[in-house]
Every structure is written in structure tokens, then in C-alpha cells.
Automatic annotation (TrEMBL):
Residue span(s) of domain CBS: 7-67, 82-141
PROSITE patterns given in the database record: ACT, CBS
Superkingdom: Bacteria
Organism expressing this protein natively: Ammoniphilus oxalaticus
Alphabetized PANTHER family for the sequence: ACETOIN UTILIZATION PROTEIN ACUB, CBS DOMAIN-CONTAINING PROTEIN CBSX2, CHLOROPLASTIC
Keywords noted in UniProt: CBS domain, Repeat
Matching Pfam families: ACT, CBS
Name the UniProt record assigns to this protein: Acetoin utilization protein AcuB
CDD domains: CBS_pair_AcuB_like
Amino acid sequence: MLVEDIMNRNLVTIKPYETIRLAMLLTAQHRIRHLPVVDDTDKLVGIVSDRDLRDAGPSRFDNESDSEQNEDIFNRKIQDLMNKNVITAHPLDFVEEAAYALYENKIGCLPVVDGDNLKGIITDTDILYTLVELMGVHTPSSHVEIQVDDLPGMLADISAVFKKANYNVNSVLTFPGKHQGKKNLMFRVQAVDTRRLVQSLQESGFDVIWPKEPEK
């Protein structure tokens, strides 16, 4: 899946010469946490977050006599506050690469650019929802997890059991097992009752980690 498949194209942006007051108004009105900053040619030149705005704004405990000073803060230009070192994504980047960039840089969004032009924005919430969709958790399904030897062809062998038992798979993930030379395969199966599938897997010699058998 590509970034362009999930990015938000309905952009809300601000100009460098516009004010912190307007930025606060836009983030509140549109319920967004990040505002890309673009120049008059729509070239991305910075980004400002709701946290940046809160940090820059006056405290609610400030004395009312400081209202003139507060007005000065609200009227300051976004170019004085924005982050100019913007980490971006390309529309044709893979979603997992964008997710890694968010995680690695501890940021909440990536403006999506093609050349210098802003095309969209992708946030950590978009990534999380996409992960939920890819894993098939948003539809009725069950979790089945199997520990196998870390050898080629294991997935094909298990798939044959799924096919014979007539169970459909929404998604599959693989990750290292707890033991040397093992890996785990995690399936979201399009069924609520997986007892017949689990029995077929066990009869075929596979080590089913989940669902666990009830303790006797």
C-alpha cells in the first residue's frame, strides 16, 4: 500500500506571514494537530503543530493586565514559530516506510510532497487505522497463532490446512518466535469458531499458540 492511497488530500495550510491567532483558529475549527506552512506558490516551507501554538501562547493564568503583551503574541507571524526542517514523504512511498519515519523521528505527521509541491498529509492516526484495516481487525474475525520452524515453505504448508478446512484468511503476519530457530505466524481468520481449524492444524503436527486450550 502506498502513501498516496491513505494520505489526506483536503489540506488546511497557512502562510508564513499569517498570524499565530489564525493558526490557532484553523487548528480548532478543523480539529487538526498540524498545519503545513506554504508560500504563495504552494511550496512547503515549514510546519507548525498545536503543541507549538500552545507553547507560544499566553498562559490562562497570566494577569489580565498583560493583555497588550498577549495581543503581541497572537499577532506574531507563523514564520517566527514554524519548524523549517520538515521531514516529508513522497506519494509513492510505502506506508510501512512512512510509519517507520514517524516512529524513528518521534513525530506525529508527514507532509507528502512531490518535488516542492505539497500533495497531502499523513498522520500517526492514519497509519494506525491503516494497520487495523490491514490486519483485518475491523471485521468479524478470530486470532490464530502458530509457532513453526524458521524454514522456507512453512506458510505454504499451513495454507494447505486452511484450504482443506475451508477457512478464509483476512491477514497474516510473521514475527520471530521466543525460541531459537522458530517464528510465529499470526492469522486473522474470517470465522468466530476456529475449533475445527485448530484441530486440523494440530492433527497436521503444527504447534498452535492461540487459541489456547482451557486448563483442566
